[in-house]
Design a protein that fits this description.
Largest sheet: 5 strands, parallel
Distance between the termini: 72 Å
Number of domains: 4
Strand order of the largest sheet: 2-3-4-1-5
CATH superfamily of the largest domain: P-loop containing nucleotide triphosphate hydrolases
CATH class of the largest domain: Alpha Beta
Oligomer: single chain
CATH architecture of the largest domain: 3-Layer(aba) Sandwich
Shape: elongated
Structural class: alpha/beta
Number of helices: 24
């Protein structure tokens, strides 16, 4: 009958235990010297070797011919304990034997000396599952145990074990096994079992095992069941994972802001049977690796998950800054946590991708912080987008460009627009008639301080700002520009907008746009408050223009 790999390849000596040398060396020295404790407590995550070491210790203390602290696995005691024929060594599962009556029955048997071996050993797995009364009953025999008795307790949740129990045991903590050690052991197992396993496949299985050897062997057993070579593609197909290539492409779509491509890719993965929870986990691992590579570049690969190659991380890391990565990781983590109780996991994942592609949709503090940080660090430059057409080397001055139908918007270059015609004033303005002719091509300010070139300036600004940030300025209720012939003032509705825009990076770009519209080098300032009301642009026109531009972030006070 076929035996699972994790059972077939259970360690039979302390030297064969992978990744727990700090535990096995101590246990070997105690067996050699005979300085054994009456109670041991093994703690650690699942699949790290707790039960295997407990069984090894039970055989080692009863072995007739121990070898350097290891059981010989050939004497009658070792063979009897291994096949379960010696009843003096008993393994209990506390999950199903957690009542006080079970502990009392064990105590009644424990007082008798062993019949065929040196020590009576009780291995209690998942000991944290015992009831409070059962722990009290166990404590009685742990305080003054007979000389022939040994307890080996194992648990994955040490915080649930009472301090009175822990204080009477020698405690050994089992660490998560490193991915490199797991991969090397998997290659050895595959060679002995007679099937092909590539280095990439072994590394991927080791990473997915999350430090547990039993999980790694179970995954390898599943992937090798159909025969043939077990490589990365085979592991992804067998386990229903999206794969690091598709995950990287999804994040690349988010970097470009391409919502359509991201949703189409998600639909394809969903149609192929990919789990949304697994996909969220892979996205989270990739964004985490990008964040680690940006914040701790000298840490090396020890902090990485190992599922993505260096070239992929290098290409993607340049597309996001640290605040943006933190915002994305928070969003993905929240989505992954909510998927377990979601009525429609696919819809939740689609909403997550849409928000990743357009950070302006994330109203959380992390989303606002990421947008403000982008403005502070990179001015008003838009986030990475699809490759734009070649940049014009020497654009002509604005006053030399004849008016034509606007060409397709260049994402990087600012479109050259002429000032719109001056709107007729609501009432005569004698000052304009008395003013001397000015050779300066800048349009004269209208009554009340309104600026006819404001729409042209705003249209130019649209070409260099992210649509989510531009939506504030495109809304006349939130921002108004005023030009008095020498200085341009941007009046904003609240202190948040003033903080966001009153930066040297923005005022420098705004000054250049004013120069292109007016032909005059001007000082730019951002002020909070209501702009002069006379001859202000009609709110309906600005709203229609904003909706026509596809804006969606309207702030309602």
């Amino acid at each position: 009958m076929y035996q699972a790999l994790y059972r077939k390849w259970r360690s039979r000596t302390f030297d064969a235990v992978v990744g727990q040398g700090h535990v096995t060396q101590t246990l070997k020295r105690q067996v050699q010297s005979g300085r054994l404790s009456h109670a041991y407590l093994f703690t650690g995550t699942r699949g790290t070797g707790k039960t295997s070491c407990a069984k090894l210790l039970a055989r080692a203390v009863n072995c007739e011919n121990p070898r350097d602290g290891n059981p010989c696995n050939a004497c009658p005691s070792c063979l009897g304990i291994e096949n379960g024929s010696i009843l003096d060594v008993l393994e209990l599962d506390a999950a199903s034997n957690n009542r006080v009556d079970d502990m009392r029955a064990m105590m009644d048997e424990a007082v008798y000396t062993p019949s065929t071996v040196k020590k009576r050993v009780y291995i209690i797995d998942e000991v944290h599952m015992l009831s409070a009364q059962a722990f009290n009953a166990l404590l009685q025999i742990l305080e003054e145990p007979p000389e022939h008795l040994m307890f080996i307790l194992a648990t994955t949740e040490i915080h649930k074990v009472p301090a009175t129990i822990k204080s009477r045991c020698q405690q050994f903590s089992f660490k998560r096994i490193r991915a490199e050690d797991i991969a090397a052991h998997l290659l050895h197992v595959a060679k002995e079992e007679g099937f092909a396993l590539t280095d990439g496949g072994a590394a991927l299985v080791a990473r997915l095992a999350d430090g547990g050897m039993r999980d790694a062997l179970s995954l390898l057993d599943q992937c090798s069941g159909g025969g043939g070579t077990v490589d990365e593609e085979r592991v992804y197909d067998c386990l229903g994972l999206a794969g690091n290539i598709e995950t990287a492409r999804l994040l690349w779509d988010a970097a470009k802001g391409d919502i359509s491509s991201a949703l189409e890719r998600l639909d394809k993965l969903y149609g192929n049977g990919k789990e949304m929870t697994a996909l969220a986990g892979e996205l989270s691992a990739l964004v985490r690796d990008l964040l680690v590579s940006r914040t701790a570049p000298k840490a090396g690969g020890d902090l990485m998950t190992g599922g993505f190659d260096g070239e992929t991380l290098r290409r993607l890391s340049g597309k996001f800054d640290v605040p943006r990565l933190v915002q994305m990781l928070n969003l993905i983590q929240r989505t992954a946590a909510d998927l377990s109780r979601s009525a429609n996991r696919r819809t939740d994942m689609e909403l997550c991708l849409v928000t990743l592609c357009d950070p302006g949709l994330d109203a959380s503090p992390a989303g606002l912080s990421a947008r403000i940080a982008r403005l502070e660090q990179g001015g008003v430059a838009a986030p990475p987008r699809p490759a734009p057409p070649p940049r014009r080397q020497a654009p002509p001055p604005a006053d030399e460009v004849p008016w034509e139908e606007p060409p397709p918007r260049d994402e990087d270059a600012m479109p050259e627009l002429e000032p719109e015609p001056v709107r007729p004033p609501a009432e005569p303005a004698p000052r304009q008639a008395a003013k001397k002719p000015d050779p300066d091509p800048a349009p004269a300010p209208a009554a009340g301080g309104s600026w006819p070139g404001w729409p042209a300036f705003r249209e130019k600004l649209k070409g260099v700002m992210d649509i989510s940030d531009y939506s504030f300025i495109s809304n006349d209720a939130m921002a108004q520009g005023r030009w008095d012939g020498k200085e341009f003032t941007l009046w904003v509705a609240n202190s948040f907008l003033k903080t966001m825009l009153d930066k040297q990076s923005f005022t420098r770009v705004a000054a250049e746009l004013v120069r292109q519209v007016t032909g005059v080098s001007a000082k730019v300032s951002v002020k909070e408050g209501a702009a002069p009301a006379e001859d202000a642009p009609a709110g309906g026109d600005a709203l229609d223009a904003f909706l026509a531009q596809g804006g969606s972030n309207i702030i309602v006070e």
